[in-house]
Here is the input.
Amino acid sequence: MRVAIQGELGSFSHEAAERMLPGCAVVPCARSAEVFDRVQNASVAAAVIPIENSLAGTVAEHADLLVSREVFVQAEYRLRIVHNLIAAPGVRLGALRRVLSHPVALEQCRDFFRKHPRIEPEPFYDTAGSVKHVVAERMADTAAIAGRHAARQYSGKILQAGIEDDKRNFTRFFLVRKLADPKSRVSRRKRPVNSSLSIHYGAPVPRGANKTSIAFKVKNLPGALFKSLSVFALRDISLSKIESRPLRGRPWEYVFYVDFLRGDDEPARNALRHLGEVAEFVKVLGIYRAA
Here is the structure.
């Protein structure tokens, strides 16, 4: 199975893809939009994307793409993020003057830089890409911060392992597939259709799915958000996440992202139909088994 990721081979996305789909062939992409393009044009069977880090928060671009593209989340995975100081073979810690990595990784290793004030952090486009660069160029005074996967991929040497500040650092990944034609799915399942509600019932839902991700926009009316959230409270449905993001192309308007702890069952369907009556739009992003 060909699976797209954003970033280089050896990245945390690469590691997550192999854990979620053992034996898959990972296809690295330079940009997130390219990942979603490949899923939609079926040049890959699926994609594995980071959606949220326990310290840095939501990956905004991926959240936006899930709303704008015809894709469906089928699984989630939580990967423990362990940052390592990696250099070319033969390089010693005492020789370092710079460390390259993605800005988020550098920010998560502030204690390391406080302990080594002579070493300057320098932003790079990708964690694994920084290892690839310092090893390929045989840089004698520069190292990178990335996972063990990157060290193995590019034959780098780990000078220090586990240099992240917070040991409870996790990234949540989604397995994303192409969405089939909504009309054929609805007619086949013979379920009611609400014109303001995009429920993709025909997308394959994993057995034992107990979590749903949605996005919705409320109408600009008093109490609109309260009414939207009440559709879950009335049915004793627990929300595990709620977050708002600006709606692209419509300044000062916002989309709410919600995860709730139910699968494709009657209370969840009733809540979504009810939400469709009080919200301007609703999109079900995925139904899957909670990690």
Notes: The CA atoms of residues 15 and 200 lie 29 Å apart. The chain is about 30% helix and 35% strand. Residues 180-291 form a domain with the Alpha-Beta Plaits fold (CATH 3.30.70.260). The mean pLDDT is 91.
